[in-house]
Amino acid sequence: MMISRFILAGVLAVVVVLGGTSTYMYLGSKQSRVAAPPEKPTAATPRAQATTLPGAIYLTQSGAIYRLSAGRFHQITPEAGWSQPSLAPNGSSLLAVKYGQYWSDVYVLSLFGTPTRQLTSNQARQGMNDPSLNHWSFFPRLSQDGGTLWMTYDGLKCDGCFDVSPAVYSMPFGGTIRQARAWTDGGYYSGGDQQPIPVPGGVIYTKYDYGSKYDAKAENKLVGMMWFSNRAGAYGRELTTPSEDCRTPSLSPAGNQAAMICTYGKQVSYLTIASWNGSTLGPRTTILTNQMVAQPTWAPDGSGIAYLAPAVPDGPFQLWWLPKAAYTAPPPSPPPTPTPGGPHNGPLPTPTPPPPIPPVKPIQLTTNNGFDATSPIAWLG
Question: CA Rg, the chain, in Å?
Fold first, then answer.
């Protein structure tokens, strides 16, 4: 009976960590209400694609990591709990999370999915009998110089407790978890601080908490907020408001724009873009409002944004591509050129306006897959 209670508590802890907000739980539910199970990405390859994206994209389905390059999918890990890939800054390797029964660890993988190093060891000796003794690591990222591992980690909980409080941690890439230090305080049963993005001078992350704690006019419900912290232990500051309910940041290759999803308190997830000056987000521009967008990721060459979204209501998440022209204003039309030979005797002819530019729409790249909407996409240029 005691073991069953521990197992139940462990499962609930995972739910809190992985689905810290109603939107994430909604995303998860959207992946299961389908008449037929999704196909493996490799089942339909080679597939004729109207658009072939540059480089290689890494994404997750059913506990396996897949690589998409030259229009073909390749399964690079078995279906064994692999998720959340990210790239080393020099593009030589991957970081990824592997889930155990009541824990998760960060590994270094080759670009073809071979594990080369385990960076954390979060399974306790008595962890099978008492899951509260285990720990969880999520969303690994390396600093630009490759010397620091950033991740979400539940190291603030006490041994034998189930008060999962994920926070942003950093540790030397060549070190151990004992050298890790908490940069943030993840709160208490609120979903914590997730998906850190190291930037010059600090770290951007998503804080899940009750909006009324930060805005007296906000509803007392869990929301996501983009936050920035410039040193370990600092309180940090919010970059977006509780009413915007924003999460899953992704920085552009130039580092001057951030893509994210914002719900504005609804069961939606809009693709939103804002400028980033190193400490503050600029005005938000909503790009997509008619899809359940997840995990926006910039192309390494800045040519557009890839993301996940269902193709039909209640369908599994597919891979989509939004070209840069869809969110970049066209240059203004030039003024009419004066007629050579001096002024006219009479009024100038009325210039003919250019034809309207048709809106650029997202391009659906897959049709019957079911990618993990809570796992970030990694893109190698």
Answer: 23
DSSP per-residue string spanning 97-165: EEE-SS-EEEEEE-TTS-EEEE------TTTTT-GGG---EEEEEE-TTS-EEEEEE-TTSPTT-----
Q: Containing H/E element for 224?
A: strand 222-229
- Cβ atoms of 164 and 153 within 8 Å: the answer is no
d(CA 378, CA 116): 18
Residue 341 token pair: 């030979």
Token pair in block for residue 4: 């069953």
Q: What single-letter DSSP state applies at residue 345?
A: S
Report how far apart, in Å, the C-alpha atoms of 243 and of each of 27, 109, 226, 265 are. 19, 39, 12, 6
pTM of the predicted model as reported, rounded to 2 decimal places: 0.84
41, 72 Cβ separation under 8 angstroms:
no
Strongest mean pLDDT among 14-23, 206-215, 372-381: 372-381
Question: Which ranges of the chain does DSSP label H, i.e. alpha helix?
Answer: 2-18, 22-30
Cα-Cα end-to-end distance for the chain: 52
Burial of 137 (0-12, 13-18, 19+ CB in 10 A): buried
Q: What is the pLDDT of residues 173-198, one digit of tens each?
A: 989 989 999 999 987 778 899 999 99
State both tokens at 135.
């720990």
Q: How many residues does the chain have?
A: 381
- Provide, for the chain, the percentages of residues in helix, strand and coil under a 3-state DSSP scheme, each rounded to the nearest 5: 10, 35, 55
- Confidence band (pLDDT; 50, 70, 90) for 48? very low
Nearest to 154 by CA among 208, 118, 108, 103: 103
SS3 (DSSP) at 177: helix
pLDDT, position 130:
82
What is the C-alpha separation between 170 and 185, in angstroms, rounded? 13
**Comparing C-alpha atoms, which of 212, 157, 216, 159 is closest to residue 186?**
157
